[in-house]
Amino acid sequence: MLRLLILNLSSILPVIYAHKVHVGNKPQVRVTTALVNFHARIMDQWGDGGGKTWTIANDSYHPFAHRQFGGGKRREIRGTNMFGSGYPYGAWNTTSIARRSFPFGVWPLYWEDDFMDSSEVGAQLDTIRPGGHISIVPLRTTKENFTISQDEVYYAVGDSQSLISILISYVTWCHASLAWPTRFDPTSPNATVKLENVLQYYRASSFALASPAYSNPNSRNASY
Ligand SMILES: *[C@@H]1O[C@H](CO)[C@@H](O)[C@H](O)[C@H]1NC(C)=O
Ligand SMILES: *[C@@H]1O[C@H](CO)[C@@H](O)[C@H](O)[C@H]1NC(C)=O
Ligand SMILES: *[C@@H]1O[C@H](CO)[C@@H](O)[C@H](O)[C@H]1NC(C)=O
Ligand SMILES: *[C@@H]1O[C@H](CO)[C@@H](O)[C@H](O)[C@H]1NC(C)=O
Questions:
Q1: Are 3 and 193 in contact (CB under 8 A)?
Q2: pLDDT tens-digit profile of 72-87?
Q3: What pLDDT digit, counting tens, does each position of 47-63 carry?
Q4: Which residue has the higher pLDDT, 41 or 158?
Q5: Ligand 3 atom closest to 145 (CA)
Q6: How would you classify residue 107: left for phi > 0, otherwise alpha for psi between -120 and 50, otherwise beta?
Q7: DSSP state of 139
Q8: Ligand 3 pocket mutation, candidates 145, 146, 147, 150, criterion most atoms within 8 A of CB
Q9: Which secondary-structure segment (H or E) carries 30?
Q10: Is the C-beta atom of 95 inside 6 A of ligand 2?
C-alpha cells in the first residue's frame, strides 16, 4: 500500500510534467557561489539538470568554499525515504551529510539532534540557503477520485522558492487547494512533520514529501 502511495505521489510531482508545459516565466533559483562577488549559478526547476560540475570559490566567507556542486540530472532527483538519499554523487559518507557536495546546487534539509551532522546546513544558515529558508506547505486535493483522497494531507518541505513554484504546479495541474508555504523549523519538538514522517526525499535530500500518518521505523538508522 505504501509503495502504491509513493508511486501516486511521484506521479503528481511537477518535475515530471515539466517538459510538457510552455511557460515564459520559468521558476529558477539563484545559487550564490561566492559571498565576495556576484558569482552565482541559476538552477532551473524545470530543466533536465546535468551540465558542468562547479566548485564553490575559495572564499573564506562562504560556508562551503571548495565544495563541488551542480551536475545532477533530473532523472537522478529521486531518493528514498531515508535522509541522505537522492545524491547522484558526493554521498561518500553514508552516515553523515557533512562535507558532501551539492549535486543540485541546493542544500540538504536538516533535522533535530544534528541528525547525520545536518546542523552543518542548519538554521544558522537559513538566510543564505539557496532558494530561501526552509518552509512547509500542506498538499490537499480538491477533486474526488483523484489518486489521493480528500481527507489525506501531505506536506512538502524544502526551500521557499522551490515550494512556491512546486505549489503553483500542484494547483495548476493537480487540482490541489492553494495554501501558502509557511516557515518551518525541522528541529522543533512539535514540528508538523518529523524525520520519520518522510515518504520520499528528492534532489539530494533538499526536498521531501511527508505525511504525519506515515512512520518509517528505520528513519533514525543513519545510513545513506
Ligand atoms: C585560498 O585563498 C587563500 C587566501 O586568499 C590562500 O591562502 C589559499 O592558498 C587559497 N587556497 C586555494 C586552494 O586556492
Ligand atoms: C562519517 O561520518 C561519521 C559521523 O559524523 C564520522 O564519525 C566518520 O568519521 C565519518 N567517516 C569518514 C570517513 O570521515
Ligand atoms: C469521479 O467521481 C464522480 C463522482 O464521485 C463520478 O461520477 C465519476 O465517474 C468519477 N470519475 C472517474 C474517472 O472515476
Ligand atoms: C510548539 O511548542 C512550543 C513550546 O511548547 C509552543 O510555544 C508553540 O506554540 C508550539 N507550536 C505549535 C505550532 O504548536
A1: no
A2: 888 888 999 999 999 9
A3: 667 778 888 888 888 89
A4: 158
A5: 1
A6: beta
A7: E
A8: 145
A9: strand 28-32
A10: yes
